[in-house]
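USER:
Working in pairs, take the chain set out below, taking as long as you need, and write a paragraph about the fold.
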Amino acid sequence: MGNGAWCVRTDRGLRRQWQRCLRTVEALQLPSPFDATVFIDMLARTRGRPIDLVPVVARPHTPCGLLITTDRADCILYAADTTPLHQQHILLHEAAHIICGHHETAPAATAAAQVLMPHLPASLVQRVLGRSVYTEPQEQEAELVASLILTRAAGLDRASAAPPPAEPGGSRLHTLFGAHGRRTRADG
């Protein structure tokens, strides 16, 4: 097979991944207005398993986000010393790994957990998932799901901020500017 056939297969694979991620995100319940921590709280309740959010100071050569699975809960560690927008994306990226089930197949890697959370007993850690542990397709999928969540949330937030529909027989200008009363011939 030549390179052209490989590219077609790759394009189809990417299209299938996109469609799968889109269906996954469309099935999620999102809070409105959107808040990543509220969303993760809802995800935890839906799963019946706590998800603890743990801000940490970034250290050299460590990922900005990490998912740690213990015997009692999942912990999302995220950089405390970055912008709120970046923190939101980190939280959603790590939550996306949970949503996509990546945490169920990843190997245990307690060394990373011990560096970032030295008070956490190694015996409790079942899995530690950082960017160095996931496969590239899992990282792409988590990034895509996180981005699709944000895109969908922005659409929901815009829709909820839209002005109410005009009253039957009323003009859009009357609804937008709050003008009430009799309609004149100029109003239409």
